[in-house]
Amino acid sequence: MCSKKIRNLILCFGFILSLHAEENTAQENTTEENMIKENPPKDAPILLEEKRAQTLEFEENKEAKKNIDEKSLLEEIHKKKRQLYMLKGELHEKNESILFQQMAKNKSGFFIGVILGDIGVSAHPYEKFELLSNIQASPLLYGLRSGYQKYFANGISALRFYGEYLGGAMKGFKSDSLASYQTASLNIDLLMDKPIDKEKRFALGIFGGVGVGWNGMYQNLKEIKGYSQPNAFGLVLNLGVSMTLNLKHRFELALKMPPLKETSQTFLYYFKSTNIYYISYNYLL
Fold it and tell me: What CATH number is given for 108-284 in this structure?
């Protein structure tokens, strides 16, 4: 009985001691927390400064990255603009090429034309034919031409093959007679046209070429026998400027150098002429 009471007293005393120990531990923890709050560690400002520096560095890196991204974006935009400009240029060149090819096709083909020209002619007999008077005239020449022209793919240059005839009348050696001047030739010309509108249907140009032909002067002189009148075969030279309207209508202002411009005494009379100056109209069939 006594031992049981003693054991109970011991247990109560142990319980009281454990409660007292827990209270002391709690008080010590509270005291340490208060001391930390009242007296923070000496290295706390350093930690705050490092944190602030890290924050600033992060912000700077973020700003730098943003600037780099903006710069890259601008460079990409400029690159795309250059590519777009180049594509537009290529498209324009392709469209121009197609337009020129179509124009070349439309301007190639057979044509017919009419010519109105002028030439200065002087002629006089040699001494053995003193009964004849002199000739000094500038007859109008009328003519026709027909041929084929072929434009190259650029639509600007072309070759033209054609034949033409020109003739006109003037007063002869006798007051009641007429003399004639005539020329005929086969020609090849190089044409160069410059379009002056967006659709390439109107153009200004120049041309030049050569040919072989014949020209001569003739009048009826039955009473004089054994002499031929001035005429010759030879080289022909063509030079001129042109204007094309709506692809099919071509006007030209040009000169033609005939084969024979001055004679010797091998002919019945002396003959001399200028170049032929003419205007012409060609219609593309």
Answer: 2.40.160.20
